[in-house]
Design a protein that fits this description.
This protein is mainly beta. It is about 10% helix and about 45% strand. The protein contains one helix and eleven strands. A hairpin with a 6-residue loop joins strand 1 and strand 2. It starts with a helix and ends with a strand.
Length: about 140
Amino acid sequence: MYKAFRKVLAAVAVVCCLCLNAGATGPESIIVPYDGSKVDTAAILRASGSFNVSVNPYARAKGDTDFPLEAGETVRIYATYSPDSASMDFGLVDPDGVFHYVSAENGSFDETFEVPESGNYRLGIKNNSGQTVKVSGFVKY
């Protein structure tokens, strides 16, 4: 019963992830009351996107999209994978190519990473098992 419930939840998560669109917000202009000039507020760029990938046994997969981030910003990674018995690591690849990860368990992963320094980061996935693993999910940054 528990396995069936997990599979249904994984299927719902996959369907929800496929319905997500990437989006971002940009700076808004405000009017300074004294002289009427416009000043741009600080831009808070937030976006999300979904992914669906098969990772070969003992292989690594890296996203093809950079996340330009400032120090202290966060990235949330949510994923489900099958078979759920596989050993998987999810995280971010920093500008120097170092993979910062957390291990996943039981077919799902939901973690938020805070980046220590500014730069372009990418999603990283590592399959530590001897079988191909299908992974789907989303990244919000």
